[in-house]
Structure formats: C-alpha cells, structure tokens
Amino acid sequence: MSLENTTLDEILDTFEFLDDWEDRYKTIIDLGKKLTPLAPEEMTDAFKVRGCQSQVWLVPTTDADGNIHFRGDSDAHIVKGLVALMIITFSGKSAQQIVDTDARAILDKLGLASHLSPMRANGLFSMVERIKAIAEADLR
C-alpha cells in the first residue's frame, strides 16, 4: 500500500488493533518508508521545519482546485513516519480545511503525544504549526 492510498481512518483502526507501542512505532516507521524522498535541492532552509530535534522538511504545492499537497522528509526514521502521518492528515485539503483540522484531537486519539519523548512531541507540533501557517498564508 502506498502512502497516497493510506487514510487516517486506516491508521486509527490499525492503532486500535495494536496493543503494544513497539508495534505502533513500527507502523509509524513503516509509514515513513513509503515517503518519496525529497530531492537535495528541496532540503533547504525554505522548507525546513523549525523546532524539530531532527531535520524535517515539508514542501507544499497547490493544485488547480486550490488544495494544498505536502511532501516531506526527515533524517530520522520515527520522525519520517511522523512526517508521513502529517501528510496523510493534511495533504490534499483546502487551506480552510487544514486550518480547521484539530490535529491535537487526532494525535490524542492515536495516543501519540503521550508516547513520544517531549522533544519529539514538540517537533510533531512544530510540523502541525508549519502546515497550518502555510494554509493560513494561502487564505490571505
């Protein structure tokens, strides 16, 4: 299954089925393996997410319908999976839908924030802030 065909509902169902956090981490890492690597010229400060312990890049593009699509990458396996999770959550939506998405509720449903190190959780919320900032700029 490719990342494009993976839905948030499928991930929520998988997490509900898996009791063990080791298995959940493996699922997140596997999501990251589905990301198409960014080209070196895309791994620039313009696309870098600040506030992440690892290196994280998010590259937005807007389609003809005005929906924002994200591609991303990281230099750490678990973080790459978190990037994939953010792409699944936000990519392909309108700027308004992105702004209106309650990422904290989704992450709480997955139980992620309480099972990540404080630095990783901060990095995850930095990704959410960056994605929402891109969407808000698109609304202006």
Could you characterize the architecture of this molecule?
This protein is of the alpha+beta class. The chain has helices at 8-17, 21-33, 77-90, 95-100, 103-110, 118-139; strands at residues 56-62, 67-74, 93-94. The longest helix has 22 residues, at 118-139. It has 6 helices and 3 strands, in the order ααββαβααα.
What is the compact description of this entry?
The chain is α+β, with helices and mostly antiparallel strands and 140 residues long. It is built from 6 helices and 3 strands. The chain has a 3-stranded antiparallel sheet.
For this entry, give a set of tags:
140 residues; 12% strand; 3 strands; globular; three-stranded antiparallel beta sheet; alpha+beta
Query: Which H/E pattern describes the elements?
Result: HHEEHEHHH
Output the strand order for the largest sheet: 1-2-3
User: What percent of residues are in strands?
Assistant: 5-15%
Task: Enumerate the spans where pLDDT stays under 50 for 5 or more consecutive residues.
Answer: none
**Main structural class:** alpha+beta
Biggest beta sheet attributes: 3 strands, antiparallel
Q: What's the Cα radius of gyration?
A: 14 Å
Oligomeric state: single chain
Overall pLDDT, averaged?
92
Please report the total strand number as a whole number: 3
End-to-end distance, in Å? 36 Å
Total helix count? 6
Q: Which of globular, elongated, flat, extended, rod-shaped describes the shape?
A: globular
What proportion of the residues is helical, as a percent range? Answer: 40-55%
Secondary structure blueprint with pairings:
Elements: H1 8-17, H2 21-33, E1 56-62, E2 67-74, H3 77-90, E3 93-94, H4 95-100, H5 103-110, H6 118-139
Antiparallel strand pairs: 1-2, 2-3
